[in-house]
From TrEMBL:
Its main location: membrane. The lineage of its organism: Bacteria, Bacillati, Actinomycetota, Actinomycetes, Propionibacteriales. Belongs to the 4-toluene sulfonate uptake permease (TSUP) (TC 2.A.102) family. The keyword Transport applies. It is a multi-pass membrane protein. This is Probable membrane transporter protein. Keywords: Cell membrane, Membrane, Transmembrane, Transmembrane helix, Transport. The chain crosses the membrane at residues 79-98, 104-122, 142-175, 235-253. Coiled coil: none annotated. It is found in: Cell membrane.
Amino acid sequence: MGDVTTGVLLFLLLMAFAAGFVDAVVGGGGLIQLPALLIGLPGASPVQILATNKLASICGTTVASATYYRRVGPDPRTFLPLMLFAFLGSAAGAAVAYLIPRSAFEPIVLVALLVVGAYVLLRPELGDVTELRWDGHRHTAAAMLTGLAVGFYDGALGPGTGSFFVFSLVGLLGYDFLEASAKARLANWATNLAALCVFVPHGEVLWGLGLSMGAANLTGGYLGARTAVARGRRFVRAFFIAVVSAFVVRIGGELLGLWG
């Protein structure tokens, strides 16, 4: 792991564990893990950090996806097309990740989180029960478009992807929060895999660090998924609002220069 000190490594492992837990419950673990990598690895390129983040994240989404699949049993008629188009979108996004200026990253995420958080907060009944907006081919088409759009964002930037998947599945397609979280984890696994398919051949992944963080992320993902399934949709909704609020404060304060 090169010149990473013990203190930095412990910090990154702790953040990876927290990211795995948050990601498994409601998504958005990248908003913890990616900034931690930026702090811990000031000499790494943005694409190296993004690629290493993907490697660590896929470990957590793998175990969380398996846990949700066994315990919630999401409908494959929705999650399979969602995963396929999320994969394609993420691969396309990763291909253009080199072109996106770093200065554009946080403002985009902040605006998206403000919209998502306000919408969920102002509609307390949202996500309590599954009330699908459409059925048949229109439902499948909406899932495909969701996968393509959020997948592209994940490949190009990444942080908050799980939260955006959850919000889209709840607000657009009409799933409850628990069902949406299950499908979001499966789609997020596909986006992580697609991005790695682009980054690995270019040698962007820091393997030693990424796998170490992956083990911590996996542990957090397992505990987070089991907690979400056990506590139910109301817990997931409350956790979603808390996490989005924390991200808004952190990113907004950084843009305003309140902290580094």
